[in-house]
UniProtKB/TrEMBL annotation:
Naturally occurring in which organism (per UniProt): Gigaspora margarita
Record's protein name: Transient receptor potential cation channel subfamily a member 1-like
Main location: membrane
Region (Disordered): 1-21
Superkingdom: Eukaryota
Origin organism lineage: Eukaryota, Fungi, Fungi incertae sedis, Mucoromycota, Glomeromycotina
Keywords: Membrane, Receptor, Repeat, Transmembrane, Transmembrane helix
Residues in Ion transport domain copies: 812-1062
UniProt topology in membrane: Multi-pass membrane protein
Matching InterPro entries: Ion_trans_dom, TRPV
One of the GO BP terms on file: calcium ion import across plasma membrane
Keyword Transmembrane among record annotations: yes
């Protein structure tokens, strides 16, 4: 009992903790020692270096670089201070580097300095390491992240580019551990950096093409392709909560050193990959973090940076324009102290707040827009409207109103209605004489008063409809001022939004309605909150109506106050970058539909000018805006038909596009490579996601072994103790010397530069499709719809064909050629060796002919169903059909009857062998001549048809003169005639060799006349010419008109057409048609969506010497095309062509011409004075 009592009352051991502030000794029970110490002094008092939050903000992890430890904290609803959960010390981690990811189920991932599998995962509840089984234990992990659905995603670049997706198992009870199962492996292409979002998107950056490719790892579909300016490398990537905006902080790295230069902020729309805005920081500013905050209630981009003196700056931007940055220091001053480090997620701050690890949920103030305008003096426009739902409810309520009693009617409303916002005030004056006067005022902060806006501050917004609608009463049903101070208005003729544009005044910003312009016929049902108003951007206006009624006037007709709001609206949209990005494709389709050619050109010019800087002495392209040109590319087929002049001008201005910011020749000129120095060869690799197959794993294993073998041999060269190695000997004494020799003698010859193909999405197919419909009636790409000679005069399209051919074209073409060769071989052997082979062998050959023939006929049937009219009217399609049909029918008849007519065998063999020759048309040396033959044949076809009619007419006349008078006279060699008529008349056409009258039928007469055309007159006897003067006249006429005149004319025309035919261009067009057939009729629907085969943006290399020769041809006005390519100063500088001297020579020529004209005028004036 005593011992028991003494043991129970024995004091517990304590430890001493010295406070840095009060220097006291604090006694803490040892059972609480570790936990209390971690809470009071996390990471053993070492500074926190990094904070990472879980995807659903359940947990947060902190990391200390000094202590090399990680602590997991839980985020408790309603509590500001985070709750300590557990800690992993440095002793439990193998070569720790940094904290990488935190999950919602209490797992953390720590990146290590290990060479293979350079990360460790810990389950923080019991500090256990879950097992993750990789197919290859030597993977190097570049990036890892947990997603909102609980998966763990890792990206590896060695030994192969691959992504691994692990899914946690649900524990059976509270004591069971979570296991991670490898559920998917994705095959990737080359990338230099990667980013993973919590929503399961994988963003890969390629430093060869400077593009960020956003992939959905669940659907394996491309979300968006965001090109950035060359030499800029992304450092930070941030997405909005709905992942519709992508923010990028990139740094400009020069080639001379690895020190970063200026920083640039990009904001992209993930809907189409178009660059909304950019902002440049000085090289003295380093950007630390970027965050999207205040989603849906006035979204802003927060940029945190520091200068060379470590002074921190916080700027607030409108993410859609990145203009007029606002100092956001006051945003961090709200009664709490926020210290580094901290992170902002879902507009909440997590970090050191008031000295402890806490969450600050009130970071975004109540009445956020008022706070922006009043406290931060942020007067930038708000593009995302918080009151979208209120707009929908207003429309819905207006639809349910049965009477107009509660609406504003001009017949009984004679008062002003005021709608006051934060920066703008709207006044609506409904007057008696059918007039709606809208006034706008802006708030002057200096004078604290409302002043009329600059530009048109008062406008009459009453529409002047036609006489039928004009007599109906027009109503303004309801108005509301929006958060961004625009005026939302529901009327009987549609939904309108009014805004104020600086220096222009009141403008119509948005319209939705129908052509009747009368509320009782309006149907707003397609505006549903779930699929339109729920999005950050309003649904597109009714552009068809706006364009159709662009001449509709508003206000008193004939007065100076009359306005054309619809016309102004469409003009504002086609010149505003924001509107073009979100509505440009829809606007372009409406303009094409309405045949608004002038506006089409204006929209095209706007897209062009956002990319190319006019009157620039440096480079004239901004590659980050290149996706805007896809709006022009989408109507290439229509431009070819309706406006080929503008298309030719566009191709001319984009013939040579260098995608560099720095135009130094040393930067763009590249050392040649033995295997990749081809002219017009693709540059870089293009990403495509696919499931990893066994073949991929096998190839990666071989590649890994090869790399290790090379590494061992490399070490062997520097180790004198090693034995002799054949590989080292070959590399040292053969490969390296040959490479040096090749570089030395070919450097000047094959120096290449990179060019950009400025036709984004030109070869791409739509992502959404129906598989069964695509199998028989595939949707063509713009490339297929735009096969025209003008495009292939430029290197851009030739490089495009080379890319397509090298990527997939030759593989498919050789396979098709192989199948056809099997068909040809089987039938030819059966026809030629039918008597020398067994019956079974003959049957097998004929059956193989039938099978391969049916496969080719199915392809021809697909061509027919794709476009029946074009197929029937195309002579070459009919020829292809007959080539396959003849041997198939011949094989069927031969198998059924045991024999077949010899003429069928001969005809089938001839057609098959001629078709085989045409397969060489894609091989350039032979294909050029085949293309020349086919192109010239098409052009002279009409002439040949006319000549055929002439020959037929003469043949019919000869038949009437020389046909036999009795049936027996046309029986061939047994021909004999008695009597005066038989002998004297029919002997005129008897062939001297076989006594056969060849003019017995019209077909024989045509053949005989054709033989006369080539000089064979044996079909007509000399006696016939002696005794029949008309026959003599007919023969002489035929000889003169056809042989002397038509044949010589034919030869002259043929020679002229050969000289006029651009055989290289014809070859490229034929090659393009071959590729088009492969894409449409041989590829499966999913293969047409492979982004490494059909990338949105393509770069290619050209030889400088060949480019220099072409530039000289262009400068000397010897360009063979509609409009010669534009030569920018940048391209001339790179290839070292004296642009200034050339310009001076041209200027001298112009001045000489002007002097000559002046002399001529003076001479004429002197002559008049003398007279």
């Amino acid at each position: 009992m005593e011992s028991s009592t003494s043991s129970s009352t024995k004091p517990k051991p304590t430890f001493q903790l010295q406070s840095q502030d009060e220097h006291k000794i604090v006694h803490v029970p040892s059972s609480r020692h570790s936990r209390r110490l971690s809470i009071e002094r996390p990471h053993n008092g070492k500074p926190i270096s990094k904070i990472i939050c879980s995807p659903k903000m359940k947990y947060a992890g902190t990391w200390s670089n000094d202590d090399k430890s990680v602590i997991l904290w839980s985020i408790v609803t309603g509590q500001q201070r985070l709750k300590y959960e557990n800690e992993i010390s440095r002793t439990s981690i193998t070569e720790p580097n940094t904290l990488s990811a935190v999950s919602d189920n209490m797992h953390v991932v720590i990146k290590t300095n290990s060479y293979h599998l350079n990360f460790e995962m810990f389950e923080m509840m019991n500090k256990q390491k879950p097992s993750l089984r990789f197919p290859n234990s030597r993977n190097v992990i570049d990036r890892s992240e947990f997603t909102r659905n609980g998966d763990f995603v890792t990206v590896s670049s060695f030994p192969s580019y691959r992504a691994f997706i692990f899914t946690p198992t649900t524990p059976s009870d509270s004591t069971s551990e979570i296991e991670w199962i490898l559920t998917s492996m994705l095959e990737l292409s080359y990338f230099s950096d990667s980013f993973i979002t919590i929503y399961g998107n994988l963003i890969l950056f390629n430093d060869k093409t400077f593009q960020l490719i956003n992939w959905n790892i669940e659907t394996l579909k491309l979300q968006t392709n965001c090109p950035i300016d060359w030499s800029y490398v992304p450092d930070l990537v941030e997405v909005t909560e709905d992942e519709e905006l992508l923010g990028i902080c990139a740094k400009n790295y020069t080639e001379q050193d690895d020190e970063p230069g200026t920083s640039r902020i990009y904001v992209y729309s993930t809907m189409n990959g178009m660059n909304l805005a950019t902002y440049d920081y000085d090289s003295s500013i380093s950007i630390d973090k970027i965050y999207f905050i205040a989603h849906e209630i006035g979204e802003r981009l927060l940029v945190i940076s520091h200068n060379t003196e470590n002074e921190i700056t916080r700027d607030l931007f409108d993410p859609y324009t990145l203009e007029n940055p606002v100092n956001a220091e006051n945003l961090f001053e709200n009664g709490v102290t926020i210290q580094n480090p901290y992170i902002i997620k879902f507009s909440q701050v997590i970090g050191l707040i008031d000295g402890s690890i806490s969450i600050y949920r009130e970071f975004i103030r109540n009445n956020w827009v008022d706070y922006l305008r009043g406290q931060l003096n942020d007067y930038n426009k708000l593009f995302t409207l918080y009151d979208r739902k209120a707009m929908y409810e207003m429309i819905k309520k207006a639809m349910n109103i049965e009477s107009y009693g509660s609406r504003y009617n001009i017949d009984h409303l004679e008062q002003e209605e005021t709608y006051k916002g934060r920066l703008l005030k709207w006044v609506l004056d409904c007057q008696f004489l059918k007039s709606f006067i809208l006034k706008a005022f802006h708030f002057n902060h200096e004078g604290n008063e409302w002043l009329p806006v600059q530009g048109k501050s008062q406008r009459n917004i009453f529409p002047n409809f036609n006489s039928e609608i004009q007599n109906r009463p027009q109503y303004i049903i309801q108005c509301k001022i929006l958060d961004n101070d625009d005026l939302f208005m529901i009327t009987t003729f549609g939904v309108l939004i009014w805004t104020v544009i600086p220096d222009k005044g009141i403008r119509l910003l948005y319209y939705w309605g129908n052509e009747d312009f009368y509320y009782q016929e309006l149907t707003y049902t397609k505006l549903s909150y779930s699929d339109t108003f729920a999005k950050r951007i309003l649904p597109p206006p009714e552009f068809d109506i706006v364009i159709k009624f662009k001449e509709l006037s508003f206000g008193p007709e004939g007065s100076k106050d009359v306005s054309y709001f619809f016309k102004e609206l469409i003009e504002d949209y086609i010149t505003n970058k924001f509107s073009i990005i979100y509505y440009g494709s829809i606007i372009m389709n409406s303009l094409v539909k309405m045949n608004a050619d002038l506006m089409i050109e204006k929209l095209c010019e706007s897209c062009f000018e956002f990319n190319f800087k006019p009157n620039s002495d440096i480079n004239n392209i901004s590659t980050s805006n290149i996706q805007l040109l896809s709006i022009i590319v989408q109507i290439f087929p229509e431009l070819l038909q309706k406006d080929p002049n503008y298309l030719a001008g566009f191709l001319s201005r984009t013939a040579f596009v260098i995608p560099f910011i720095d135009q130094s020749p040393l930067r763009v000129r590249e050392k040649p490579s033995i295997f990749h120095s081809s002219h017009l060869y693709q540059h870089g690799t293009y990403n495509y996601l696919s499931k990893t197959s066994i073949i991929n794993i096998f190839i990666s294993r071989i590649y890994e072994r090869w790399k290790h073998f090379q590494y061992d041999q490399y070490k062997h060269r520097f180790d004198n103790n090693k034995n002799f190695s054949i590989y080292s000997f070959i590399e040292t004494y053969i490969i390296i010397p040959f490479q040096n020799w090749y570089d030395y003698y070919n450097f000047d010859k094959n120096i290449t530069i990179k060019l950009l193909l400025p036709l984004p999405k030109f070869i791409s197919y739509p992502e959404s499709y129906n598989t069964w419909s695509e199998l028989w009636n595939p949707l063509p790409s713009n490339f297929i719809r735009s096969i025209d000679g003008e495009l292939y005069k430029y290197w851009n399209c030739e490089a495009l064909l080379n890319f397509k051919w090298n990527t997939y074209g030759r593989k498919y073409y050789l396979t098709i050629w192989l199948f056809y060769t099997i068909l040809l071989g089987c039938f030819t052997m059966a026809a030629t060796k039918s008597n020398a082979i067994s019956l079974n062998s003959l049957t097998s050959l004929l059956q193989a002919t039938f099978i391969f023939g049916i496969w080719h006929l199915m392809i021809e049937f697909k061509k027919f169903t794709y476009s029946p009219l074009n197929y029937i009217t195309d002579f070459w399609n009919l020829c292809d059909f007959c080539v396959i049909l003849f041997p198939v029918i011949t094989s069927i008849l031969w198998l059924q009857n045991g024999s077949v007519s010899t003429w069928l065998l001969a005809a089938s063999s001839l057609l098959l062998e001629l078709k085989f020759i045409l397969f060489f048309r894609t091989i350039e040396p032979i294909g050029i001549y085949i293309a020349l033959i086919i192109s010239v044949a098409k052009r002279i076809l009409v002439f040949l048809i006319i000549m055929g009619f002439i020959i037929t007419a003469f043949a019919h006349s000869f038949l009437l003169l020389l046909r036999p008078t009795s049936d027996i006279s046309s029986e061939g060699p047994s021909y004999s005639a008695t009597g005066m008529n038989g002998v004297e008349e029919n002997d005129q056409s008897v062939n001297a060799d076989n006594n056969y009258n060849i003019f017995s039928t019209l077909g024989d007469a045509i053949f005989a006349t054709y033989m006369m055309l080539i000089g064979n007159f044996t079909s007509i006897s000399q006696s016939a010419l002696r005794y029949n003067p008309f026959l003599t006249f007919l023969v002489v006429s035929f000889s003169f008109f056809t042989i002397l005149y038509l044949l010589n004319l034919f030869i002259g025309i043929l020679s002229k057409m050969i000289n006029e035919t651009n055989y290289e261009e014809s070859f490229l067009i034929h090659k393009a048609k071959v590729l088009a057939e492969i894409e449409l009729f041989y590829m499966l629907p999913h293969q047409r969506r492979k982004k490494n085969w059909f990338p949105e943006i393509i770069f290619y290399t050209v030889h400088v010497n060949k480019l220099r020769n072409l530039v000289r041809i262009i400068q000397n006005d010897k360009w063979n095309g509609f409009e010669k390519p534009y030569l920018s100063p940048a391209i001339l500088k790179v290839i070292k062509v004296e642009y200034d001297n050339f310009s001076k020579n041209k200027q001298v020529e112009i001045e000489i011409g002007e002097i000559k004209e002046l002399i001529m005028r003076l001479r004429d004036d002197v002559g008049e004075i003398d007279e």
